Automatic annotation (TrEMBL), chain A:
Record-given protein name: DNA replication complex GINS protein SLD5
Location in or out of the cell: Chromosome; Nucleus
Family affiliation: Belongs to the GINS4/SLD5 family.
Main location: nucleus
Gene3D superfamilies reported in the protein's UniProt record: 1.20.58.1030, 3.40.5.60
Keyword Amino-acid biosynthesis recorded: no
Key word Protease present: no
GO BP annotation list: DNA-templated DNA replication; double-strand break repair via break-induced replication
The DNA replication complex GINS protein SLD5 C-terminal domain, residue ranges: 180-233
Function: The GINS complex plays an essential role in the initiation of DNA replication.
GINS subunit domain segment(s): 80-160
UniProt region (Disordered), positions on chain: 1-36
From TrEMBL, chain B:
Family from the record: Belongs to the GINS2/PSF2 family.
Gene Ontology biological-process entries: DNA replication; double-strand break repair via break-induced replication
Positions of the GINS subunit domain: 65-166
Organism: Drosophila virilis (Fruit fly)
Location of the region described as Disordered in the Swiss-Prot/TrEMBL record: 184-203
Subcellular location: Nucleus
GO cellular component annotations of the record: CMG complex; GINS complex
Coiled coil regions in record: none
UniProt domain DNA replication complex GINS protein PSF2 N-terminal: residue ranges: 2-61
Amino acid composition bias (Gly residues), ranges on this chain: 188-199
Protein name: DNA replication complex GINS protein PSF2
Domain of life: Eukaryota
Pfam families: PSF2_N, Sld5
Keyword tags: DNA replication, Nucleus
Automatic annotation (TrEMBL), chain C:
Main localization category: nucleus
Underlying gene: Dvir\GJ16092
Gene3D superfamilies hit by this protein: 1.20.58.1030
Pfam families registered for this protein in UniProt: PSF1_C (PF24997), Sld5 (PF05916)
Domain GINS subunit: 45-133
InterPro entries (alphabetical): GINS_A, GINS_bundle-like_dom_sf, GINS_Psf1, PSF1_C
UniProt similarity note: Belongs to the GINS1/PSF1 family.
Superkingdom of this protein's organism: Eukaryota
Record keywords, A-Z: Chromosome, DNA replication, Nucleus
Protein name: DNA replication complex GINS protein PSF1
GO biological process, one term: DNA strand elongation involved in mitotic DNA replication
């Protein structure tokens, strides 16, 4: 059993180092200097919410690079610790199962973002150009991917068709930019009380109580989702 | 969202098991579980409970609400109420389904429970369909959906948001084409016509611009 | 454009119908079809340019509907053609997720050169993206496609595959119709390729 005890100990220690890493992240952020360090559990929580929000939102949401990096190292660290264990050990199997779940969440989350990046490439690139560094939706890796993808698509279309088309005016390529429909309806659950949310074109207002659920055009609640006052379900 | 994802999320629900082994607590990333003591109940996530049960390492203790009398009351109230009543678990269908399929022997009167839970689900689904019908005919774009569970929301996801999106889209197109017609007389100004930008769902918009003048 | 029974845009529409008919595969790239549509676009455009200048000189309003009609036909042609290419691109992308970085040879025959090039570019940038995630820690997004149910799944062999070595060094023989209980993560690629079948 000593192996497993070591494992448990190592995993606990790593919880602390995760907190330390998070404290570092927070230090970079002027607004949150006094923020409490987050546990691995909290990181997972944030990632899960980001994942479901991303699946339900029509547009690309803000990236979660910090959380993702922390969780990836936590997972890698656990795998390292578990390497020498008996594959049939009760603890090994349970930890392994949990890692599988976490890996799935991360992979599904990133795949979902790639799908949106591929569908709305130019739109997303254009929008991000107008945003401050801290508000960019694309992570730096995604930004590179988006640029590459846009170029590859453009190259393909040019070679096969558009270069043979007469009268390619400047406006036409822009008209081909595909943008998400921000007025598409989503299911929303309020995390906290929010008063005076406009819910219709005629400025009808509603107060959301914590835990209440709604169907509503996305654009009217996009800021609530961004501020984590509500989440998409 | 794929149904398997709804199940995946529901599997996070905590449930009581009685292990037949003993072990120190496990420090999982999402939180600690255990300690496990043979013969003593302990709460674990459903995904772990079903795994241990398949390995014959525990018995599952059905949640309190998985009880005929309780469910009978819920069913009656669901029938009486115009609104959706609050379910004892946010994932009652997923939990019930997984527990009863993995460990039917751990659930007293399993078959009867299965029937009554299905009844409750059906009552709620038909209520849901009626209200959707009224909602769409009322040309609403916003509604409150309190007490609906994730699976129930998911069951209308293919219909509800999409038909609302389509209705909204037709309305915008109707407005746009009115504008389009009224602009025809003016189009020698070379304003580039009406593009579909911002309207409709993600489609490539082909505008009716008077490009043959801008050669 | 004086073919009697044919309307503007018919060729372009045929391209799309062809794709729709074979929704599960990538049909051969329709070189001729694409060329015909491009020629039609060019012809319509030239006719319109000629008449637009006479419209501008004479101010003859009777030409207006004709110009509009041709323009609409031209836009429709472009739109159908681009939709054809876009849909093929989607299927080519899906192939990368399904089969990995190498195009199966039977499918490769159906692609035109720029499409093969697109696939290779797409494949490379996806791979380099996956390597770069998490400050270079990397993550394989083409695995873990479904929510994990169990670490092990029961599978049946659809064809003779031969020896398959698991991460822990154990070797299993995958013979046609044999059944196995194997780690899900490791056999998922074989399931996707249709060599193994997941039995519920």
């Amino acid at each position: 059993m000593s192996d497993s005890e070591n494992l448990e100990q190592a995993l606990n220690e790593h919880d602390l180092s995760t907190e330390a890493a998070l404290a570092d992240v927070n230090e970079d952020d002027d607004e949150d200097e006094d923020a409490e360090p987050i546990t691995a559990q909290k990181v997972l929580d944030i990632l899960e919410t980001a994942w479901t929000n991303e699946m339900c939102a029509p547009e690309l949401l803000q990236h979660q690079t910090d959380m993702l990096e922390l969780m990836l190292s936590q997972v890698a660290h656990m795998e390292e610790q578990m390497k020498d264990l008996d594959k049939n050990d009760f603890r090994f199997v349970v930890h392994q199962m949990e890692l599988e779940r976490i890996r799935y969440i991360m992979a599904s989350y990133l795949r979902c973002r790639l799908q949106k990046i591929e569908a709305f490439t130019q739109h997303i690139i254009n929008q991000d150009e107008t945003r401050d560094a801290a508000d960019k939706r694309l992570s730096s890796e995604e930004a590179k991917y988006a640029q590459d993808f846009a170029q590859h698509v453009d190259e393909y279309f040019t070679k096969v068709a558009t270069r043979y088309m007469p009268n390619q005016q400047r406006g036409e390529a822009e008209q081909r930019i595909v943008a998400p429909n921000l007025m598409s309806h989503v299911f929303l659950k309020a995390n906290v009380a929010v008063s005076g949310v406009i819910v219709g074109v005629d400025d009808e207002e509603v107060d959301l109580t914590p835990g209440s659920q709604h169907i509503i055009p996305y654009q009217l609640v996009a800021d609530l989702v961004q501020k984590n006052q509500a989440q998409l379900i | 969202m794929d149904p398997s994802i709804i199940e995946f999320i529901g599997e996070k629900s905590m449930i009581s098991i009685i292990p037949n082994f003993s072990n120190e607590p496990l420090h999982l990333i999402y939180g600690s579980v255990g300690p496990f003591r043979a013969g003593f109940p302990v709460y674990v996530p459903l995904w772990l409970a079903t795994h241990l049960r398949k390995q014959q390492k525990c018995r599952i203790v059905p949640p309190e609400w998985m009880d005929l009398e309780t469910l009978e009351e819920i069913k009656e109230e669901e029938k009486r109420s115009k609104f959706f009543t609050k379910m004892p678990s946010e994932h009652y269908m997923v939990v019930a389904q997984l527990v009863m399929s993995t460990a039917p022997d751990d659930v007293p009167r399993c078959e009867e429970l299965r029937t009554i839970i299905k009844d409750i689900f059906d009552i709620r689904e038909s209520k849901l369909r009626t209200s959707i019908d009224a909602f769409i005919k009322g040309e609403g774009t916003y509604a409150k959906l309190d007490n609906l569970t994730l699976l129930e929301i998911h069951s209308v996801r293919p219909i509800l948001p999409y038909s609302l999106d389509h209705i909204a889209r037709y309305q915008r197109i109707a407005t746009a084409s009115q504008r389009d017609t009224s602009m025809l007389g003016l189009s020698t100004t070379g304003g580039g016509g009406v593009s579909g930008s911002g309207s409709g769902s993600a489609t490539v918009t082909g505008s009716m611009s008077n490009s043959f003048f801008t050669q | 454009m004086s073919r009697s029974n044919q309307m503007f845009g018919d060729n372009a529409f045929d391209l799309l119908k062809d794709l729709k008919r074979s929704a599960q595969t990538i049909p051969a790239f329709d070189d001729d079809g694409v060329r015909q549509v491009l020629e039609e676009i060019k012809a319509i455009f030239e006719e319109n340019v000629a008449q637009a200048s006479s419209y501008n000189n004479s101010g003859d309003r009777s030409l207006w509907p004709l110009l509009n009609y041709r323009h609409a036909a031209l836009q429709r042609n472009k739109r159908c053609l681009l939709a054809y290419l876009y849909e093929r691109m989607q299927r080519i992308k899906a192939m990368r997720w399904e089969f990995g970085p190498i195009i199966p040879s039977d499918i490769k025959q159906a692609l035109c050169d720029p499409e093969v090039q697109f696939f290779n570019n797409y494949s490379k940038s996806l791979a380099s993206y996956m390597r770069s995630v998490g400050d270079g820690q990397g993550i394989d997004l083409t695995g873990n496609l479904r929510p994990p149910k169990s670490l092990y799944i029961e599978v049946r062999c659809v064809e003779n595959y031969g020896k398959f070595e698991l991460d822990d060094g154990e070797v299993v023989h995958l013979k046609k119709n044999s059944q196995h209980y194997l780690p899900r993560a490791q056999v998922e690629p074989l399931v996707r390729q249709g060599i193994l079948q997941h039995i519920a």
